[in-house]
Amino acid sequence: MRDTPDRGDHEQPPQDRTEGHETSIDANGSPAWVDTQDLSNNEFPLTRLLIIIGSLAFTLFVSLIDQNSVSTALPEIAKDLNAFDSISWVGTSFLIANTSFQLINGRLSDIFGRKACLLICLALLAIGDLLCGFAKSAIQLYIFRGLAGIGAGGINSLTMIIFADLTTLQQRGKYQGLLETNIALGNGVGPLIGGAFAQSSATWRWAFWFVVPVTCLAAFGILSAVPKTQVQGSIKEKILLTDFWGMILSLGAAIIILIPVSGGGSTYEWNSAIVISLLCVGGILVIVFILVEWKVARVPVIPFRVFERTSAKILFTHNFITGIVYYMDLYYIPLYYQIVLGYAPLMSGVLVLPLILSFSASSTTAGLILSKIGRCNPVVRIGYLLWTAGAGGRIAFGENTSLGVIVVCLMIEGLGVGFSFQPVMIALLSNTKKEDRAVVTGLRNFLRTMGGAVGLAIGAAVLNNLLTANIPSHLAAKDAPMELASMLNTLSPSDKAVVVAAYMKGLKVVFCLGCPLMGICLLSSAFLTDIPLATAYATNSMSQGPACRNEDVEKTACHRRDDVTEPAVAQTPNETS
């Protein structure tokens, strides 16, 4: 990186300019206006700040309700649409779309504005769910669910990006509880809503239609509460800087890899020609994407500088691993309740609440501790330790495990999740440059969701293989485990006992995976560099980018901050104008 001379006390940070149709790129490979959406240098009244963050939190809550409400309604959907052999694609199509678009949302919001992108994503979610409710065939449902997945993926990333714009690293822990509580509640309430509609006369279609008016309410909140930021540059300049090749290649690679990963072992055999071909093509696209980002893109979707620090590499890997474990929990614990322990869909959703509520409570506590001590690593390590212990307890789950033991294990694991998720995000931001916060947030969400896809694929493969090996021959002709599960109560007592035992064998293997995976996160956290949050951006800017004085870096991260076009926003007295 080039060095810049020291500036006088009253000299402004360097400003990149555009002349004619040429848009300048700064020393870090970002457009001159990429960081104009930083709102953390504004002094919001506490009430106003809480309203803004509350609107973001409610929006995230709506997205997660939509994401989780379908799981408990799947048996009814499969029965109504006669889609037992392919019903897993309700979740798969959503997950593929959600994951694939997470990667590009950060950079798109840098270029076209956070608020506009978030409102578009809310519209996509509402339209997708409305159409899902009217679906007349399984294929229609899978397509519309994919459309909703694009919107949900954008919402999940953009709410966190705007939250990062609003707060400094030191403040983030204090307010993160609002976001994390809504994440936990969305994960917990979603299955209850889906199960309630599936068991009522309203039918499963209302599990989708219910989300539409709530999404409109969230959009109104965002439109009213979130301050509008002015993104500099003309439309032509923005289009010229958009890394279309990078976006196309990243989307193509993610989709082509996720299709066999999600469908392998269930829809397709792992050794089938289509799975092998898609994985090979996806791998080639990943290589081409890396070359384009490295050598061609002016403003890459993923600037490689975000991987410069060893701690950043470790934390990105942790997000992938925790995605595997957390998504397997959300999917396979309700399955364990319903099939092995015999609870109804609604009750299985209720019994996941110990995990969700402890997650919610501990995330708030972790945020307060984080703000108090100003360091991430101690909080992250406590989270990984608790999560590893809770995941280890799940190894003991069986057909006769008492509900008390299950609840205690889930509560311990929930405490670990709450102490891990947002502190790891803040640790990532403290190990990267301030102007990369949108890209880092999108990449983190992409890796966690990709981990979830891999985790669900591993679980499905294990479950299918053990079911095939252990169920009676006269039941083995059934097309799918979901169909077998839906007819469990119609089987003879002896057949039912064999099927339940086969499911338990598969679930036992799935549950055993969580402890060693979280153990890897716990052990590798010893190699993380503990950067004080108060100086993190200054340290990163001085070590990775143009030379700046500490006070300039803390205020601007070597970029100017654009004015917020809302009169209610006051600027800090010491800000250089």
From TrEMBL:
Compositionally skewed regions (Basic and acidic residues) per UniProt: 1-24
Region Disordered: start-end pairs: 1-32
Principal place of residence: membrane
Keyword Transmembrane helix: yes
Recorded superkingdom: Eukaryota
GO cellular component, one term: plasma membrane
Record keywords: Membrane, Transmembrane, Transmembrane helix, Transport
Topological type in the membrane: Multi-pass membrane protein
Residue intervals of the Major facilitator superfamily (MFS) profile domain: 52-497
Transmembrane segments: 49-66, 116-136, 142-166, 206-227, 239-261, 273-294, 314-333, 403-429, 450-467
GO MF annotation terms: carboxylic acid transmembrane transporter activity
Intracellular or extracellular location(s): Endomembrane system
Family: Belongs to the major facilitator superfamily.
Protein's name in the database: Major facilitator superfamily (MFS) profile domain-containing protein
Provenance organism: Polytolypa hystricis (strain UAMH7299)
Lineage: Eukaryota, Fungi, Dikarya, Ascomycota, Pezizomycotina
